[in-house]
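User: We ran a pulldown and think these components assemble together. Before we commit to crystallization trials, I'd like a predicted model of the whole complex to look at. Sequences follow.
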Amino acid sequence: MKTMKEKHPLAIRWFHWVNFPVLTIMTWSGLLIYWANSHYTITLFGHTFYLFFPQGFYKALHIPFRLAEGMAWHFMFMWGFSLNGLLYVLYTWVSGEWRHLLPKRNSFREAWLVVLHDFHIRKGLPPQDKYNAAQRIAYTSIIVMGFGSLVTGLAIYKPVQFYWLTWLCGGYHLARIFHFALTIGYVLFFLVHIVQVFLAGWNNFRSVISGFEVIESPNIKSLTIPSNDEQPAEEKP
Amino acid sequence: MNNLPKKNPKQPLTVEQQIKRRNFISFTAFAGLSVAAYGGWSWLKKSPKETPGITGKAQAPFRRALNQSELAFRNFFSRNHLVKTYPKSGAAKKVRENSHVGMKEKIDVSLWNLSVMKRSGQVLLIGLDDIKALPRTEIVFDFKCVEGWDQVQYWAGVKLIDFMDHYRLNDEAAMAYLGLETPDEKYYVGIDMDSALHPQTILAYEMNDMPLTDGHGAPLRLIIPVKYGIKNLKRIGTMTFSNERPRDYWAERGYDYYSGL
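Assistant: Here's a predicted model for the assembly, 498 residues in total across the polymer chains.
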């Protein structure tokens, strides 16, 4: 017996899929800008382990000598990135979706169990509703990171007019480093996200396009399965 | 017997049908929007360059976005927002020289004059000693390049606002833009008057307590901390005023005209 269970409201699916290409463009145009003074390294005890980024990487992506173009794209799509992010936060707040998204008191302990489970060290997951504890933490962190990119971005873009933001970021240099590090963070998030989506399978992936999941409930003769069990106040798209 | 075709009152869709239906609608919409987004992106990517003029080399939609962003952020500009200053001990001893555009020809500094084109058409020729006689201002601040580097530097000269006051350039100060060009006219910038009259904008003739070197724009250069380095023109030859944007070297090459910080 199959039933449909509403999962992602339409608005959230929009925000998600608008953000994906916009953030990709922001990352790419950011790289065009970063190239012009490419100088961040990972250095420990005087030994440089990694230079962001190797020449081959830039060449492969046709990055060099495109600073003006990078700035033009970055300062166009910054509006879309910020607007989409702000609307998302506003929506989750007003609709009550934040209840599924914000970590709960026990989330940090539970997230650890989720990670152990994902690495096949522990059997069984802690009970979860729409998102498990690790997801709550990840999906809240990514919004905090997005907000961080907006703030550090403004601190770099107008360090004189928004001097207090630059000060808040620990100065111009730190603001730039945070802005860069956050982007590296998105790339890492993306990689884990893709692996997880792949492992979670089709039903899960479909739900971020169609909005619902199909629940197979074997051996139940009754047809009166409540479609939204355990989820009071769920918004339908 | 009226054998009307059986018009079933709409049967509720089975779960299977509902799934199919919603999948179809969602995935069609998703595919359609993806194609549209891709189309929009490739249109933007291949969009025509702006007509070369005061600004150039940028694609038209991007130039529009740069100009709109300028308008949005100009609302936050204030002459009371001061650039952070540092103690002199924090200033770089070896000051970075990033460009020599407009300074290829040798000039005789003793024969140099700053030409100020007044609104009336009158031209003021002002020598370096006259400028040095005006109140001296120092600034140690973090000079920022559009490329991403920055350096704490120590400059001294006269505030542009003091200079304009002294030469009674009041009519000119009421105009929208200041234009500066090198004597060979190979490098030139346009600056909105708000930024030009910012109290930390100076006509600099000294760096690290020494007269400007050739490489840093002797005998007189602009130091404008509310702008990226590209606007800090070296070796000023002429000063003009206008209500339209004056020509600008880097804006002609795809960069934002405003380039304000």
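Chain B has six helices and ten strands. That may be worth checking against your pulldown data before setting up trials.

User: Thanks, that helps.
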